[in-house]
Amino acid sequence: MKQDELKQAVARAAIDYVPQGIIGVGTGSTANFFIDELATIRGRFEAAVASSEATAQRLKNHGIQVLDLNSVGELEIYVDGADEITRHMHMIKGGGGALTREKIVAACSKKFICLADDSKLVEVLGKFPLPVEVIPMAQSHVARELVKLGGQPVLRTGFTTDNGNVILDVHNLAITNPVELEKQINQIVGVVTNGLFAQRPADILLLGTADGVKTMQAG
Ligand SMILES: O=C[C@H](O)[C@H](O)[C@H](O)COP(=O)(O)O
């Protein structure tokens, strides 16, 4: 099965989790499939909160109302993809550069439902370079600190986040303790946040495989 077909299958499966109220919606190609599925059930839920400008635009294009996070209470669910995910539901996210807003919307949601094709399921995180969102003037400082942690930071050239910042993609990190590393990187002055979602892992993983969609939880 092609990767896009797997993404579409998990996006369709996620519709079963959509509550009547307001949904947090992630960013990326898998989230886009989910948005397109949401469009088919418009009217069965109230509105959405978007984790990026791109997602907000796609939702609006489908006629789905997009609300400001500050105007709503806690969300029932947040649905998003990942670049890598482990059986413990720890993730690397931010391949599309939306990590900070994604982390914020996820933090405001009771349940994180991760959608992924089976190429994203890994034993240990870190083959995918870890995105770190950085205030532009702190770029060199943060890069030096990331080298001290054993990584090789590479500036994502020509890319600015929705928040006006830059991304350093950190290669070759040995991510043996994702919870600690997430905290450690976030303590570097100038870092907005990093793409490790370990302190707040996913609750449910809908994994697209050639044998169908598997539902997994932390274990
Ligand atoms: O910033 C982007 C997000 O974290 C995405 O959820 C992640 O990169 C996965 O994207 P895709 O579904 O396109 O593989």
Structure write-up:
The chain is 28% helix and 27% strand. By secondary structure, it is of the alpha/beta class. A 6-stranded mixed β-sheet has the order 2-1-3-6-12-13. The protein has a 4-stranded antiparallel β-sheet with strand order 8-9-7-10. A 3-stranded antiparallel β-sheet has the order 4-5-11, covered by helices on one side. β1, α2 and β2 form a beta-alpha-beta unit. α1 packs across α2. The structure holds ribose-5-phosphate. Ribose-5-phosphate is lined by residues 26-31, 80-83, 93-99, 102. Residues 26-31, 80-83, 93-99, 102 line the site of ribose-5-phosphate (R5P).
Name of the CATH first level of the largest domain: Alpha Beta
> How many structural domains can be distinguished in the coordinates?
2
Strand content: 25-35%
What structural category arises from helix and sheet content? alpha/beta
Strand order of the largest sheet: 2-1-3-6-12-13
Q: What is the average per-residue confidence, as pLDDT, rounded to a whole number?
A: 97
The total strand number stands at: 13
The biggest beta sheet, please? Answer: 6 strands, mixed
Helical stretch count?
6
List low-pLDDT spans. none
Give the topology string: H per helix, E per strand. Answer: HEHEHEEEHEEHEEHEEEE
CATH fold annotation of the largest domain: Rossmann fold
User: First CA to last CA: what distance?
Assistant: 27 Å
Say which molecules are bound, naming each kind only once. Answer: ribose-5-phosphate
Helix content: 25-40%
- What does the radius of gyration come to? 17 Å
**What is the CATH architecture term of the largest domain?**
3-Layer(aba) Sandwich
Global shape: globular
